[in-house]
Structures are given as structure tokens and as C-alpha cells.
Design a protein that fits this description.
single chain; alpha/beta; four-stranded mixed beta sheet; binds copper (II) ion
């Protein structure tokens, strides 16, 4: 029989995935830690499905824009120079850039759950690397952390 507390319990269970969704921050830095310039911090981030990432620019000249995403996921572009939150509901690896600074290696990797699209990501990475002039090794280092 359903009583009041059973209904409340069921309602709570249904909300559980939302309550568990975490928020993460990626700082888009003109001058980052360790003397790096034009850098995402952290450059590699692992999150769970349903989590949100808050992209926070240090200056008006940064944004975050997807370059490679899992099948069925949605591309994202945050407004230039403004903090913006993106929710990740599709599992896989996402590569993204700061539009003005991608030639300087201002790119990042977000892994949502399992790296189900790793092979596709590696294929896309070959093309993406041709748009990076400096600090090409960064994206390699971030990708090496994808497990
Ligand atoms: Cu930038």
C-alpha cells in the first residue's frame, strides 16, 4: 500500500541522479599555473554522465568550443569572455578549443564516463593538430590521461 512516506521515498529516488550530478570548473587562463600561457586548467578533466562543467575565462578573449564529440552528443560553444555552464549527458571523449587561441594550443579534453569513442577521437585529433601551431604536446599529454 502506498502511504505518504513511500511516495516521498520514490520521489527522492527519481531525483537521485540529479542530486548526484556534480559541477566542475575549467579555468580558461591567459596566464596559467607553471608559467603556461593560453591554457585550459585542467586541460584533462574526467567527469560522470550528467555532470556540468562551468567554463570560466580569465579575460574577455577566451571561450570553449567543441571540436570532436561522441556520436549523438551536441556540439557546444560558450560565449566569448563569459562564464558558461555545459551539461554532458552523452558518454565519451570531447575535445574542445578556445577559438582565438587554438593556434597557441589552448585546447582541452573532457572524458565523460568511459572513452567509448576513443578511436574516433584519435582520428579527429590528426586533423585538429594541424590547427595547432604551438604547444602541440599539450593535447597529447591530455589524451594520454584518457583511460
Ligand atoms: Cu583563449
Amino acid at each position: 500500500m502506498l502511504n505518504r512516506s513511500t511516495i516521498a521515498g520514490v520521489a527522492l529516488l527519481m531525483c537521485a541522479p540529479l542530486l548526484n550530478a556534480a559541477e566542475h570548473t575549467v579555468k580558461m587562463m591567459t596566464s596559467g599555473a607553471n608559467g603556461q600561457i593560453m591554457v585550459m586548467e585542467p586541460g584533462y578533466l574526467k567527469i560522470a554522465m550528467g555532470d556540468t562543467v562551468n567554463f570560466v575565462p580569465s579575460d574577455p578573449s577566451h571561450n570553449a568550443q567543441s571540436m570532436s564529440i561522441p556520436k549523438g552528443a551536441e556540439n557546444f560553444t560558450t560565449p566569448m569572455g563569459k562564464s558558461a555552464k555545459v551539461s554532458f549527458t552523452q558518454e565519451g571523449v570531447y575535445l574542445y578549443k578556445c577559438l582565438p587561441h587554438v593556434p597557441l594550443g589552448m585546447v582541452g579534453v573532457i572524458q565523460v564516463g568511459n572513452a567509448v569513442n576513443l578511436e574516433q577521437t584519435k582520428t579527429d585529433l590528426v586533423k585538429i593538430k594541424s590547427s595547432i601551431a604551438m604547444n602541440k604536446d599539450r593535447i597529447e599529454k591530455y589524451m594520454a590521461q584518457v583511460k
